[in-house]
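Notes from hallway chat w/ T.B., transcribed later so I don't forget. T.B. wanted the structure written out for a chain they're using in a teaching module, and asked if we could keep both sequence and structure tokens in one place. Agreed to drop them here.
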Amino acid sequence: NILSNQFIQTFSFVMAFVKIAGLAILAIGGLWVTGWSFESVSVEPANTGAAGFLGAVALGILGYKGFTTITNSGGELKDAKKNVGRAIILSISICVLLYVFVALAVGSNLSIEEIVIAKDYSLAEASRPAFGQYGVWFTVGFAIIATVSGVIASVFAVSRMLAMLTSMQLVPHRHFNLPGDLQRHTLIYTVVIAMLLTIFFDLSRIASIGAVFYIVMDICIHWGVFKHLREEVEAKIWVLITAIVLDVVVLSAFLWVKAQSDIFVVWISLIGLGLVFVAEKWFLKIHEYDEENP
């Protein structure tokens, strides 16, 4: 991320093809072993309900959070008004296709108990009959590549957004005698926060907390557009209201499920959201906008 925007763009572009190819190979291998049978080897659990399904949808929404990078980069795209929409539709279509194939490959080869045991290696286990032990090593290598490239792209997007909010004087900032420009500072802060999360929480809890924060942020953004910008950006009211209602339903179900299985995640999420809200409200109240030094 310290190098250049051009490097990040090229790196992310190449890694996107690598990740698409890796997922496709594993998913197709798993389905090929089953003779392209799309039937699940497990019977549907008796305790499966609407709340559990909607809770899973909440985590699924987090899987699509990367598409905000496209909209955040709108200012750097040619003919952004047309190409942002095209890029989002094309990207979501590819990911939906891949995710469905992965889900079918895993569900057709492994029972629910085996999926829970395999956890992060469930796709490798599903493709084991086709690739053997090499499937596991392939998955490990692919996971490392996907994680590294995903972290680099996410850190880049978040640090740029934080730098923009800082320059707009919407969030507090201190240099702490750090070298470099504002974006370099926000990059360091982003990495430090990510490291702290990794130290104190496991992957599943980070994903759960991230889902809560992301959906709440989504609700706030839709409400802000509805209340202040709907005429300026010609937003359709029914789209905004529908998005808010769906977000509230999914978030409520997710919190309900988590409250029964891991109440710690719920409390951490609520405390974190509360601290962010109070700190931001306090900052905007006491901060005097400086036009000469934005």
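Follow-up for T.B.: The CA atoms of residues 61 and 211 lie 7 Å apart. Might be a good example for the class.
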